[in-house]
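Hi F.,

I've been meaning to write this up properly since the lab meeting, where we talked about keeping a consistent format for the predictions we share between groups. The idea is simple: the sequence comes first, exactly as it goes in, then the structure tokens exactly as they come out, then a line or two of notes. No screenshots and no reformatting. I'm using this chain as the first example so we have something concrete to point to.
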Amino acid sequence: MPAVSVGNVGQLAVDLLISTLNMPRVGYFHTDCLIPMVGNNPYATSTEDAAQLSTSAEVYSHSDLKLAVLQIRTPIIQTKVRSFRKLIVSWIKSSLFLRSVLLSSSHAYQRDDQQLHGTPLRFLLSPSLQKEEGQRVEELGWREMERISAFPEISDSEQRLYIPGGGVTKALYTDCCTEDIPMAVVLIFCSEGDNIPDAFALINHLNDWLHLLEKPTQGSVQWRVPSSWKLLFGSGIPPLLF
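Output, unedited:
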């Protein structure tokens, strides 16, 4: 699932995953924690299925991969954040998922000095998942999200997890740690703008770990861009203006 975070990178990455795997919709979240929304099918491949309605939070499934994906399309209402986190944790526990992955992003301009070097991609593993996958991600050369000083240039004794622009990422990760839920956070440092390249980087990074699609010997995985991305930045400048 994605976090509603800076640049909507997690949501764009989930779009690529659902579209490429051609995952059917199997359910939806009916909750007052999200801003209501209804629209056409974002993954339409023909005019016949374009008129299918989509809502603010829907679940897609791939039976062969034993994969369920929750796509969130609207922001969480400010006063309902805690309720939404409880809803997600309850759903994860009742569904008995082997592991859960949260795709997220964080403001690039608010990085600590140590975070400026190397790849902009980071990860976090809950203690229960660390036991199972810690060695694997270490072999992949992944970088864990650094803890930074709570009082910079004053005292380095207290370190904290800081994910600016990450929405519910930190709080939901903390909830999963407390509830002993196997949870991984995969995130990227980015800025607002054209975040399509960030989405490709994030989903390719995830695929290196989970092997959702087979990677060719040369080049990278050919992800299929959904039809809803055609007007991602509007329909262009009307020629009648000139």
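Notes:
The chain is about 25% helix and 20% strand.
The longest strand covers residues 100-107.

If this format works for you, I'll send the rest the same way.

G.
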